[in-house]
């Protein structure tokens, strides 16, 4: 039994030696000599030391190889992972924006209208699709507020027209009369000339005007008559409508021309980004 | 001449401003500003005159309210008035 075990251990050690040191023939010869001497002298002690040395040398080589490959694989894997995470993040953000828009839906301001321009041309809301509209509701016999607001609208128009080349869609200021009884197309035409050649004035029958005012939540009320004259009380607000015909924002009396122009420019940029 | 004309409007506003300036300088004494009042009334439509008078009253009230000069009784009576 003991003789057999000794023989097996010797054979095993020789096999391992050959396998590891195959490229160099000198070392092989040396090992053969040393193994022979083992048989002659003290086989028990020396045979036990050999297995301890071999695993350590094997480990060293293994470490060297693995570390090189590992670094490469880790770097590439890491980069891929980061890229994938970034892609997911972008997609998620895009979906979130879509959901937000879908969830909010259309605001309850704005809607269809059917009126005539100061040039007596019949128009509906669809005729203005593809344009940014800034709509102001007023009347020509207005004492002070309408003229002030229309001066403001003219200044806003001047500012935005200067940036015409940068805009994806044209900007169109609109004046709607809440006094259809007196404000004929001719009268509106004369009135708007004092402010800007870019303005479009709209009027219509009392029913048509009332219908539009209802959609835009515009309050208007004819005041008491003094002879033939009267003043129409009304909300003092400008409404911004985007090229799709959707209400976007509103600006009250407290806003300056610059503030409004800047806000509209920002909406134009946002709209452009969202429709790429 | 009509309110459609820009020059007419500006003339009206100027007359109004002159009248108001007179009132400011004479602590709202209308007797001393009759000359300006007449010019104001002849330069503006009647409905505008009424509108501007109401506007001035409101602005003065707002100013007094800001500095806390409005009497308690006046405030009470205003609050009790029904909303039109």
| CATH domain class name of the largest domain in chain A | Alpha Beta
Oligomer: heterodimer
Question: What would the principal axes of the Cα set say about the shape of chain B?
Answer: elongated
Q: Count helical runs of chain B.
A: 4
Query: How do the strands of the widest beta sheet of chain A line up side by side?
Result: 2-1-5-4-3-8-9
Q: Would you tell me the structural class of the helices and strands of chain A?
A: alpha+beta
The CATH topology of the largest domain in chain A is Glutaredoxin
How many domain modules of chain A? 2
- The tally of strands of chain A reads 9
Briefly, what is this?
Chain B: InterPro entries: COA6, COX6B-like, CX6/COA6-like_sf. By secondary structure, chain A is α+β, with helices and mostly antiparallel strands.
Structure, explained:
The complex is a heterodimer of chains A (276) and B (84). Chain A has 276 residues and is α+β, with helices and mostly antiparallel strands. Chain A has 2 domains: 72-106; 111-274, Glutaredoxin (3-Layer(aba) Sandwich), CATH 3.40.30.10. Chain A is 55% helix and 15% strand. Chain A contains 7 helices and 9 strands. Chain A has helices at 2-20, 25-40, 43-104, 145-162, 185-193, 206-215, 257-274, and strands spanning 114-117, 122-124, 132-138, 171-177, 200-203, 220-222, 232-234, 237-241, 247-252. Chain A has a 7-stranded mixed sheet with strand order 2-1-5-4-3-8-9. A two-stranded antiparallel sheet of chain A has the order 6-7. In chain A, helix 1 runs antiparallel to helix 2 (25-40) and helix 1 crosses helix 3. Chain B has 84 residues and is mainly alpha-helical. Chain B has one domain (6-80). Chain B is built from 4 helices and no strands. Chain B has helices spanning 6-25, 34-43, 46-66, 72-80. In chain B, helix 1 packs antiparallel against helix 2 (34-43). The mean pLDDT of chain B is 83. The interface between A and B is medium-sized, with 15 and 14 residues. Chain A: It is found in: Mitochondrion inner membrane. Chain A: Keywords: Chaperone, Copper, Disulfide bond, Membrane, Metal-binding, Mitochondrion, Mitochondrion inner membrane, Transmembrane, Transmembrane helix.
């Amino acid at each position: 039994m003991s003789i057999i075990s000794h023989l097996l251990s010797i054979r095993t050690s020789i096999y391992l030696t050959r396998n590891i040191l195959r490229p160099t023939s000198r070392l092989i010869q040396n090992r053969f000599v040393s193994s022979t001497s083992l048989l002659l002298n003290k086989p028990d002690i020396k045979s036990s030391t050999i297995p301890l040395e071999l695993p350590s040398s094997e480990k060293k080589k293994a470490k060297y190889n693995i570390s090189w490959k590992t670094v490469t694989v880790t770097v590439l894997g890491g980069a891929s992972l980061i890229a994938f995470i970034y892609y997911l993040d972008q997609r998620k953000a895009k979906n979130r924006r879509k959901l937000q828009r879908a969830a909010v839906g259309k605001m309850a301001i704005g809607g269809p209208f059917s009126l005539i321009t100061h040039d007596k041309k019949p128009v509906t809301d669809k005729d203005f699709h593809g344009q940014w509209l800034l709509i102001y509701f007023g009347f020509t016999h207005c004492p002070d507020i309408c003229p002030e607001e229309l001066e403001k609208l003219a200044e806003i128009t001047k500012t935005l027209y200067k940036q015409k080349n940068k805009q994806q869609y044209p900007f169109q200021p609109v004046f709607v009369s809440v006094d259809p009884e007196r404000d004929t197309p001719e009268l509106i035409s004369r009135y708007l000339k004092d402010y800007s050649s870019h303005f479009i004035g709209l009027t219509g029958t009392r029913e048509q005007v009332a219908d539009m005012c209802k959609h835009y939540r515009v309050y208007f009320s004819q005041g008491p008559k003094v002879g033939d004259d009267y003043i129409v009380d009304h909300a003092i607000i400008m409404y911004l409508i985007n090229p799709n015909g959707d209400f976007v924002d509103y600006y009250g009396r407290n806003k300056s021309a610059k503030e409004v122009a800047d806000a509209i420019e920002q909406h134009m940029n946002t709209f452009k980004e969202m429709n790429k | 001449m009509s309110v459609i004309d820009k020059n007419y409007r500006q003339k009206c506003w100027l007359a109004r401003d002159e009248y108001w300036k007179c009132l400011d300088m004479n602590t709202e004494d209308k007797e001393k500003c009759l000359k300006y009042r007449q010019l104001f009334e002849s330069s503006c439509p009647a409905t505008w005159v009424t509108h501007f008078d109401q506007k001035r009253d409101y602005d003065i009230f707002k100013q007094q309210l800001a500095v806390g000069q409005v009497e308690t009784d006046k405030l009470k009576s205003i609050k009790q008035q029904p909303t039109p």
